[in-house]
């Protein structure tokens, strides 16, 4: 009897609990809260599954956020190209003349990568520039490698001998074999002093500023190229980058001639002038194109937006329930439901929109656009019309104690001269360097990253490559590329 009464008591309590839950679920406010909880939970699971590579997302994973997908595939292709090029029986792409439309230079300094068990970054970088390139594209790109180590680049850089033996670029040069004899000793002494002070990040930045300006000047002095592309050595270029860049540059020329493009005010380009642009950026880190306020609730004015949305919605629900909605619908919208929707759902959804990361939710549409912001000099194409003045400006600033970062100074130069700055999307280059040449920390180096690059699909990119070659060089060049892709 005692056991039976205990069972009956437990059953009664269970019954009471079930009845209480059922009664609670009849209340519209509780149902609305449960729906909100379910939706947010599912969205959170989705965010951790798909937004984990966005550095400006609350779902970013420090463990897997910088996992390499396409860039790893492309690096394998790049190094395979170099290995094949070392064999005498492998057909070579040939070289470009000084009249090629693009002069592209990789700036590199030795990083002693063999101690980390891998090759110098410049190997994969140059390999990615040439791998799967069509002969038509190769003839359009005058390719240089600038070994910027001082005083003896051959001794300081592990890849110097390899590139000299491969003979796959149009020019490889150093300070020692290109500086004018009258100033060589003096310049080398100053550059060596800056380069040797590796503990001083300011000195390293001044050295890299001079390297950058010198590389631009070398392209201007030795070629007739209309465009000067400067690449850092720790990048990977996408398949078809050359044809796509030429296509972008064609679009830039058309953009510059639009008469209503910009009003001629201080620091802003005058309309209708073909050469009123300074550079086209082929790489931009996600941190530069994210929401300005980051992931905080107030940072992006989410609190103000929430109030601006919640108040009209509150009025709409009150008026609609009272005058317009059928009674069968209105009975599901009580005061608690309105409170959940306007007081919780609206601010939570608005905050989640910003906190999920711009690169994840609102990726940039393909194409070229004018942008006054942007970070880093990993891959930039300059307009020859202004390249000489920019080169002089950068080299002079390198001798100034103030120094400065090259990407920031280029923007200052553009603003002072009223020149447009443009960016091409999606990015054609990815930064993969971790071992810094300017004492950048491991964490800082990782954050110079572009999410969209890793989402490239090799097959789609190969097809796009053929279309771009067909558009820029004609059907014969496209067919030649197709034959190369099939072998």
TrEMBL record:
It comes from the Eukaryota. InterPro entries: PGAP4 (IPR029675). Keywords: Membrane, Transmembrane, Transmembrane helix. The chain crosses the membrane at residues 32-52, 304-324, 336-354. PANTHER family: POST-GPI ATTACHMENT TO PROTEINS FACTOR 4, TRANSMEMBRANE PROTEIN 246. This is Integral membrane protein. It comes from Apiospora saccharicola.
